[in-house]
Design brief:
Elements: E1 7-8, E2 11-19, E3 23-29, E4 35-41, H1 43-46, H2 49-62, E5 73-77, E6 84-88, H3 95-102, H4 107-126, E7 139-142, E8 145-148, H5 161-166, H6 178-181, H7 188-204, H8 214-223, H9 233-242, H10 253-261, H11 268-279, E9 343-345, H12 352-359, E10 373-379, E11 395-398, E12 401-405, E13 412-416, E14 426-437, E15 442-448, E16 457-463, E17 469-475, E18 484-491, E19 503-512, E20 517-524, E21 527-534, E22 544-549, E23 558-570
Helix pairs in contact: 4-7, 4-10, 4-11, 7-9
Binding site for ATP: 39
Region (Disordered): 308-338
Transmembrane segments: 345-364
Length: 572
Amino acid sequence: MSQDPQLIGPYRLLDRIGRGGMGTVYLAEDAEGARVAVKVINAELADEAAFRERFRREVTAARSVRRFCTASVLDANLENDPLYVVTEFVDGPNLDDHIRLSGPMRGSSLEHLAVGVATALSAIHGAGIVHRDLKPGNVLLSQLGPRVIDFGIARALDTTSNATRTGTFVGTPAYMAPEVIRGEEATPAADIWAWGCVVAFAGTGVAPFAASNIPAILYQVTQGEPNLEGLDASVRELVELALSRDPARRPSAQRLLELLTGQPDVDLARVAPTVEAAAWPSGPTVRDTVPPPVLAAPTAAPGALAAAPAQDAWSMLPPPSPPPAHDPAPGASAAKRPNRSHRRYLLVGAAAALVAVAAGVLLVRTGNGVPDSVESWSDDFGSVGGWPDDYNKLRAYSGGGYQMKTAKLDLVVQSLAPVKEEPPARTLLSVDLKTSGTASAKTGLVCAGPNATEIDGYQFLLRTDGNGAVLRRVVFPEGATEESTKELAVSDSVPGFDAGETNRVQAACEADREAGTMRLRLWVDGDLVLEHLDRETPLLTGQAGLIAMQGDWDEKGVVADFDNFEIREIRD
């Protein structure tokens, strides 16, 4: 470091860690003596106005990334020379050095790495950033588990005159997605491809598209097949899925986490410390983790989830605006229903009946056997956020609603409502549903089981063509190798169901914990279709959500469009 500066801003430089095409990285100390990493941008890049502007935007975005399995951005100088970025210092080797020294990972070590990197990508993508250069050298192995570094900032290199003149691209060829090599824009799906390459390298010791020179590597990536020989079966299928040539076929980072952990709608704040504790049990505990969100106060932005004092099961909030003079019946179509706020959180709890009368909360009396209920939570999908939104669009906000689709490798697609608290013991679920595609495919509502997994739960299913409905209980017994499914009630027809049009679907899940029973009912457009009292092995707690599924793949699949989803507490 004899020719290196001793100070950069308020940071005292201790040692040079490395140097790359963008700049030099130093180990440094801040004013309080805490160790940090300082990346100083090369002067030839900093002189370009386009680079400085893009660099400023990318660093600002990177600072918003949640601190899960990443080396978070702590500080930056975005205006004056020299430009620099300060991140957490991660004390540990990078994955590339570790594998070359110690050999490939196996079993739980490899699985923890896969989950950790997927967790980091989920946090990075959640901030609207694409990493663009995920590779073993950018995964550091600390005592707290894998940490992904250098996310997003590499994009600024795209603006440099040198890159424009020479036609070069940003990234590491062996870990670049084929569409990026073809000159297409890097999307989160490109990071998923890189995740597959990184996990394959960690598990085999060789990059899946390795070759002797860059042209050969580019050919392998765009035309060849990945070398996955020796990769553990526990991750191989997901790696193959991540390495799909079609970006639309690759799962999102959130979906990867769900498939790796067996849990839907994974909460990053819970996964990150689990990965760290499991992979490196002797290390210190994780700080700065974010607690799971609770129901938002009325002042929150539409779709936001904010911390609030603990209440009785669900947050106790003021009543909604006065209802219209003639509130439509639950069976009304979406076009006939009044406009609502994007997402509402209303009063539910032990004292709800008394407070509802005092505050003027509307109790709705519905016809055709649908029970009295008071709204607890609703979403018209007018604001994006909360529900799973996959990059391959199997689950996505679409056209002011929410769409779910099946695919060859995803014959069952489920999405739980983004409410962390359990619904009321006596719950009425409602949604507007329009389906198309495979006639025998089924879509509908779910009351999930006690573990809120994609397996356990009650499924209220309607055929796409309207020629049948089924109520099922699906559980995955502990120690079993496959799920146990029991049809509780079946109907060969659904009177009033309008195939290809919007139908109002409602399901009641009424738990009687004292009696140990669950009463289950299904309505379509206000008409009772199925009913069953589960006394055998009832699932008495869990979340609620939506489902689309089919049997064998027919190259067609089913498309389910959902809107105006409601969770209500039954009161009669």
